[in-house]
Amino acid sequence: MKTVKHILQAKGAVVYAVSQSTSVFDALQTMMEKNISALLIMEQATLVGIFTERDYARKIILQGKSSKETPVQLVMTPGPRTITTDEKVEHCMELMTNNHVRHLPVVESGQVVGMISIGDLVKHIIEDQKQTIDQLQNYISS
After folding, report:
1. Is 27 exposed, middle or buried (0-12, 13-18, 19+ CB in 10 A)?
2. Of 17, 19, 39, 52, which is least packed with CB atoms within 10 Å of its CB?
């Protein structure tokens, strides 16, 4: 059974973050450049929130606000749920689906070490299933 540590090792434990005072426009620019759908909001070494494409759609576009003038602090999701590297992939999938979130920041020893998405989880679950199928096919063939 894979853990979050396996996912971070496979995808790289990169942390993309901005501060609360960053404009929504600049945060979106960073997301576009990095080809990601969420950013962590940090103040010094403290995780204070998460900003996602969903936040942008619901809190900027649908409310008719300006993304250049609005700081991320006003539209981010504060105090996001976090996980540790030893969490099982299946448990993370359960957390995400039950809480309707698509991203989970990963914290280890009080430090943010990465973030996983629901897409990361799906990819690894499918890979595990494929590996099991391949093993069963090899067993049947031999």
Report:
1. buried
2. 19
